[in-house]
Design goal:
Layout lengths: L12 E3 L2 E8 L2 E8 L1 H10 L2 E10 L9 H16 L9 E8 L3
C-alpha cells in the first residue's frame, strides 16, 4: 500500500537483496525484509542454483488482520489466485524453489 501512495516505510533500509524495516510489534522488534525476486534469483544462480518453480504465494496478507466473512473471502481469493497460477506480479508474496545444479 505504501508504494501506491508513494510513502516509503519509516526507517527503510535498502539492501542488495531487497528492502527492510524494523517494526514494533507487541513490544518487540520485528525485521521485515521484502526481497527482490530478481536479485535473489541472480544471487542463487551465481552460487550454482537453478530456479525450478516461481509462483504467486498470496494476493494479500490482509486476511491475517481480519476475521469472519471478510477473512474467509480473502483466503478464498488467495486460494483461487494460487490455483489459477496468476502471474507473480499480482502477489504480495511469492514462492520460489531452487535446485542445486550438479557439478
Amino acid at each position: 500500500m505504501r508504494l501506491v501512495v508513494r510513502k516509503p516505510g519509516k526507517g527503510l533500509e535498502r539492501l542488495p537483496l531487497g528492502n527492510g524495516n524494523w517494526y514494533d510489534m507487541n513490544g518487540q522488534k520485528l525485521w521485515v525484509w521484502r526481497f527482490d525476486a530478481k536479485a535473489i534469483s541472480d544471487y542463487l544462480r551465481a552460487k550454482g542454483f537453478k530456479l525450478i518453480h516461481h509462483r504467486l504465494g498470496e494476493l494479500s496478507e490482509v486476511q491475517r488482520r481480519t476475521t469472519g466473512s471478510i477473512r474467509n473471502f480473502l483466503l478464498g481469493l488467495n486460494n483461487f489466485a494460487y490455483r489459477a497460477n496468476l502471474p507473480v506480479g499480482f502477489a504480495v508474496s511469492q514462492l520460489m524453489v531452487f535446485e542445486k545444479s550438479p557439478k
